[in-house]
């Protein structure tokens, strides 16, 4: 998948019917379970995170597979019930200092079996979809056990009491954007409490343009303070502590321009925040959450185009999604490595026999001048990313625009052809 930037079994088979059938049988094999495929996500991540502060970012994405009333493929509803597909929940580990992707940690892939009629607050946590946030966090404690520190980061949907009560531990922290105005142990509310916090710093930042928002400057106020969250009045949560102490870091725009959405973040964290510098650090770590959005883009239209798959069964599509998620991470790691700041080895993304071929390709595409040489340490991921980008048509000059997803896709396709030729190099033609 990485080399062909595609999930189509026919294309993965390279035009060979026997290979296409073999891939299909693999997905249909009952011994190939979704649990084991997801377990394989983290085979290299734990070692990569050892001794580092790892940001463990988790999020859920909907994979919408086209269906008709006559061909549901066993897929359940997604979104607001207007589509059918698969949900993939993943956790991505990043180096807190460099932002480099260290790999996948854990997650879930599933399709809904039907609508649940039992009220949400009447069901135990393990019977709710929201259990994925806690389950994945607990898996992270195992996978990232050798990390110096772990900070789990999630958007509003990850903000629920069971996660705050069960996940934090020694050198294991949470940052989440507040979903709603929570009740506090003293009877007040979360949003009201923040009004009593003093402004500790004001900064003007530049906001980059994005869909529906032009580029602009924003003047932001920063404040923070400690709050004690009260356990919700739900019978299924009675086994949890009555309250949990966290810090609220609030970043807001006091006077936004007219007709512009106000920038306002309320971040809850278990990290200790003593001053403005520590509060800005929490904001900076939370901003890294956008990287997992890049992963979902690489899984869909900007990369593997997973939603175009025509596999006939939900079971096959679930397994295919698990494999494709791992493949998308490799492309993400290559894109991130292009500046050479992370220092990760090429073995994170390539097996040894492919690294040998990369070395041969590097010798062929390097120029004679210093500017045309691969500037990165040999056998590093940045070194490999430079080679793949050059194979994709990038000129390699530092002054040129950095290579993007399409360049890497073309480079990986070219590298696949080189791998085929390399495999034939010792064949003796009669």
Account of the 3D structure:
The chain has 430 residues and is of the alpha+beta class. The chain has two domains: 9-335, Transposase Inhibitor Protein From Tn5, Chain A, domain 1 (Alpha-Beta Complex); 338-423, no CATH class. The chain is 33% helix and 20% strand. It has 13 helices and ten strands. It has helices spanning 9-12, 17-28, 34-39, 45-49, 131-143, 161-166, 190-194, 276-287, 290-299, 314-337, 352-365, 381-391, 405-423; strands at residues 53-64, 76-78, 83-95, 101-110, 149-154, 172-177, 201-207, 216-230, 243-252, 264-269. Strands 1, 2, 3, 4, 5, 6, 7, 8, 9 and 10 form a ten-stranded mixed beta sheet that branches. Helix 11 (352-365) packs across helix 12. It is globular, with a radius of gyration of 24 Å. The two termini are 34 Å apart.
Give unreliable regions as ranges.
none
> What level of helicity do the residues show?
25-40%
The CATH topology name of the largest domain reads Transposase Inhibitor Protein From Tn5, Chain A, domain 1
Relevant CATH superfamily of the largest domain = Transposase Inhibitor Protein From Tn5, Chain A, domain 1
Overall geometric form: globular
End-to-end Cα distance: 34 Å
Beta-strand content estimate: 15-25%
Counted beta strands:
10
- State the CATH class of the largest domain: Alpha Beta
The second-level CATH architecture of the largest domain is: Alpha-Beta Complex
Major beta sheet summary: 10 strands, mixed
Estimate the mean pLDDT confidence: 90
Order of secondary-structure elements: HHHHEEEEHEHEHEEEEHHHHHH
Taking all Cα atoms into account, the compactness measure Rg is: 24 Å
């Amino acid at each position: 998948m990485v080399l062909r930037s595609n999930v189509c079994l026919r294309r993965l088979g390279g035009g060979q019917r026997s290979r296409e059938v073999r891939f299909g049988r693999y997905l249909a094999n009952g011994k190939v379970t979704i649990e084991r495929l997801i377990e394989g996500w983290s085979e290299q991540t734990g070692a990569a995170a050892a001794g580092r502060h790892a940001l463990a970012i988790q999020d859920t994405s909907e994979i919408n597979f086209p269906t008709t009333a006559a061909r549901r493929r066993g897929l359940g509803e997604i979104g607001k019930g207007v589509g059918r597909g698969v949900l993939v929940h993943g956790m991505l580990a990043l180096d807190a200092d460099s932002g480099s992707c260290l790999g996948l940690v854990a997650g879930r892939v599933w399709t809904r079996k039907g609508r649940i009629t039992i009220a949400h607050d009447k069901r135990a946590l393990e019977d709710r979809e929201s259990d994925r946030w806690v389950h994945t966090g607990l898996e992270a404690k195992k996978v990232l056990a050798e990390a110096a520190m772990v900070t789990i980061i999630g958007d509003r949907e990850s903000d629920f009491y069971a996660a705050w009560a069960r996940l934090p531990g020694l050198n294991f922290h949470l940052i989440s954007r507040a979903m709603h105005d929570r009740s506090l142990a003293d009877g007040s509310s979360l949003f009201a409490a923040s009004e009593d916090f003093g402004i500790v710093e004001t900064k003007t930042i530049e906001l980059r343009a994005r869909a529906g928002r032009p580029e602009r400057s924003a003047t932001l106020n920063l404040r923070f303070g400690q709050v004690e969250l009260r356990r919700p009045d739900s019978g299924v949560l009675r086994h949890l502590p009555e309250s949990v102490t966290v810090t609220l870091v609030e970043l807001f725009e006091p006077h936004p321009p007219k007709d512009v959405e106000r920038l306002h973040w309320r971040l809850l964290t278990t990290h200790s925040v003593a001053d403005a510098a520590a509060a800005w650090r929490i904001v900076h770590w939370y901003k890294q959450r956008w990287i997992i959005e890049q992963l979902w883009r690489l899984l869909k239209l900007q990369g593997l185009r997973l939603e175009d798959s025509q596999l006939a069964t939900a079971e096959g599509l679930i397994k295919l999604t698990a494999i494709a998620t791992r493949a998308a991470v490799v492309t993400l790691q290559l894109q991130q490595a292009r500046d050479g700041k992370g220092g990760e080895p090429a073995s994170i993304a390539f097996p040894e026999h492919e690294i040998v071929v990369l070395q041969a390709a590097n010798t062929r595409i390097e120029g004679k001048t210093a500017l045309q040489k691969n500037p990165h340490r040999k056998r590093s991921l940045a070194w490999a990313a430079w080679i793949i980008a050059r194979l994709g048509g990038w000129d390699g000059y530092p002054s040129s625009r950095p290579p993007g997803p399409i360049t890497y896709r073309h480079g990986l396709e070219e590298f696949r052809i080189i791998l085929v030729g390399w495999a034939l190099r010792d064949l003796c033609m009669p």
